[in-house]
Amino acid sequence: MRLWSLHPGLLDRQGLxxxxxxxxxxxxxxxxxxxxxTRHPQLQRFQEQPDPxxxxxxxxxxxxxVAEVRGYRxxxxxxDAPGPAQRMTVSDGQLxxxxxxxxxxIAARSxxxxxxxxxxxxxxLFEVERGPVAEWERP
Length: 139
Fold this sequence. Notes:
By secondary structure, the chain is mainly alpha-helical. It has helices at about 15-30, 45, 50-70, 90-110; strands spanning about 90, 125-130.
């Protein structure tokens, strides 16, 4: 499971679709509809929020918005809480780590996407603060 801190517009087709599916799984975990993945490190920052389901709902809404611009039809009715949520923070170290990871993936499968962005931009849910790679990250 990879819940990117990066803006979904940076993802290639495969990454965008995978992110949507993985975030839907994360939503099911956070809502208590499945017993698997409850301790997955990618969920930790959502679990720490006052309303984890609203946070993952805002995350999913950001992905769906990018998908619509690209002509995909992601089913927004699958988002439990599509409204706004309290903004979350991401460190610039975490963003840089994910940027390197994503660029390596895209270079292999969709190199044309590399020209579209020159620097990491966060998902709209996140505000960037200075800091290292997150403790929950598994480099």
